Each structure stands twice: as structure tokens, then as C-alpha cells.
Amino acid sequence: MRDLLEELECPVCREYMAPPISMCVSGHSVCKTCRRKLKKCRLCTKNFMKSRNLALEKLVGKMKYPCKYEAMGCTGLFSLERLASHQENCPRQAHRCPFEVLDSNTCSWEGTEDVVVDHMKTNHRDICGVLNRAGKYKTRLWDIEKGPLWYRAFFKQNDVFLWCTKLIENHVYSCLLYLGVKEEASSFTYKMTINKVDKTGSFMASHKTCPYPNNVDKIFQNCDCVIFHHDFVKQCVDAEKCVLAEIEVSRPVQQS
């Protein structure tokens, strides 16, 4: 089986070939992506024919292919049509530390999905927390005058969230990312509240949770998050130049 699968790899890019499969006059086959880039066959420098390798295309449709994360423990076999979508979401693929995605200088760890949370709790416990039963989490934001970026992770049962806040020009942007099934991220809503230190006022804003991984800078550029004006945030700074903030995460009950 392995020898046969090797014959179904494109000799140029080493990816599995999918229809249409082109041939040169010597009989060498290449995938459609490489065919668009090549004027002559890479193996023999002969011209390509207009006809396709129909026998090989028929065989491709009957084969089952291993995931590229097989060496990391994935044992599934998939049709070529399903292989790409599986590999995009394979639980055995290498995941970077979520904090490294937010801040490239944070952590170089990589591992499988099932140990990501253990890594975060063990190696980054100082920036991790737990939502209480009401779905709330209180913390003190950083001194925004010293650095533009602040982030935390918090957990509630099997749900994991990344809270990222950034000072950009005259506004403070804050978003919440959900580390779970991407399609479920928008079912969560987060509400962020900050208060003036003299207790004369407060500001609350809410938004839908975004899926992880995601480009946080793009989220902020698109204003797909909660936004506070810097002047107001400065009125909420305590004696240690930190802001007491509360975030509340809810998931509305679906009506049957």
C-alpha cells in the first residue's frame, strides 16, 4: 500500500495528485498545480500532452490516504476529497502555544491539541485564570503607558478563552478568542466593564467571541471587538497604574 501511495505523489511537489492529472510524452504524470507552473516535464524535459492520465485518475478516486500527521498519532484514512479538510482540523497536528500566537516572543512550545491546555496551565499559570460560576473573571489590566499589549487565558469547564487587549493610538481595543470548534465561537458573548477609580462612572461594552486562531491585529483593525477611549481608561487607573476590569462570558440558551 505504501509503495502504491508513493506512485500517486506528484514527482515535483510530492503532494498526492488529484484530477486532472497531466502527462508528458514520456508518460510522467504531474499534479494540476505543478502543471500550471511547468512548460516542460521536470523529469525528462519533454513536452506535455493535451490528454490526461485517466487510469491514474480512476485509481486516485478509489484510494484512502493517511493524514500528514500520522507520525504524531493520527490513524485515520481518508478519500482525497476529505483529506484536506481533515488535515486542517486534525487534533494530532502540531499546535503552537496560544500565547505565542498573540506575542511571538512568549513561548516556542509546540504540541498536540490534547495537551495545549495542560501546557498553558503548567507553564503560564501566572497569566491564566478561571471563570466563576456566573461566568465572570476580574483582573487588573496592565499599565497601558508602559506597553501596548496585554493578554490572559481563562477556563470554564471544557471551554478555553484568550482575552487580548491592546492600546492603539487613542483607543484601547479588547477581544475574546474561543479555543474550540470554530463554528461555536459566535455562540458566546463577552461583556467587558471598567470603572473609574472614584466610582463616579463606568463603561461597559459587549461583543461576540471570535474563533481561535485568528489575526488579532485584523480583528482590531476591523473594530470587531469592544473599544474604549484612552482618555476614559486613564480615569480608571489606580495608584499602581493598573485598571480593574471585569469580563463576563455568556452563552444564550438556544430555544427549541
Would you mind describing this structure in some detail?
There is one protein chain. With 256 residues, the protein is α+β, with helices and mostly antiparallel strands. Among the domains are: 65-90; 127-250, Sandwich (Apoptosis, Tumor Necrosis Factor Receptor Associated Protein 2, Chain A), CATH 2.60.210. Helix content is 21%, strand content 32%. It is built from 8 helices and 17 strands. Strands 8, 10, 11, 12, 15 and 16 form a 6-stranded mixed β-sheet that branches. Strands 9-17-13-14 form a 4-stranded antiparallel β-sheet, with no helix packed on it. The chain is elongated and about 80 Å long.
Salient structural properties:
Apoptosis, Tumor Necrosis Factor Receptor Associated Protein 2, Chain A; elongated; 17 strands; alpha+beta
**Remind me, CATH topology of the domain at 127-250?**
Apoptosis, Tumor Necrosis Factor Receptor Associated Protein 2, Chain A
Count the DSSP helices. Answer: 8
Helical proportion?
10-25%
Span of the ends, CA to CA: 48 Å
Sheet with the most strands? 6 strands, mixed
Q: How large is the share of residues in beta strands?
A: 25-35%
Going by CATH, the architecture of the domain at 127-250 would be: Sandwich
Radius of gyration: 25 Å
Q: Classify the oligomer.
A: single chain
CATH superfamily name of the domain at 127-250?
Answer: Apoptosis, Tumor Necrosis Factor Receptor Associated Protein 2, Chain A
Helix vs. strand class: alpha+beta
Task: Give the low-confidence spans.
Answer: none
Q: What is the CATH domain class of the domain at 127-250?
A: Mainly Beta
Question: What is the succession of H and E elements?
Answer: HEEHEHEEHEHEHEEEEEEEEHEHE
What would the principal axes of the Cα set say about the shape?
elongated
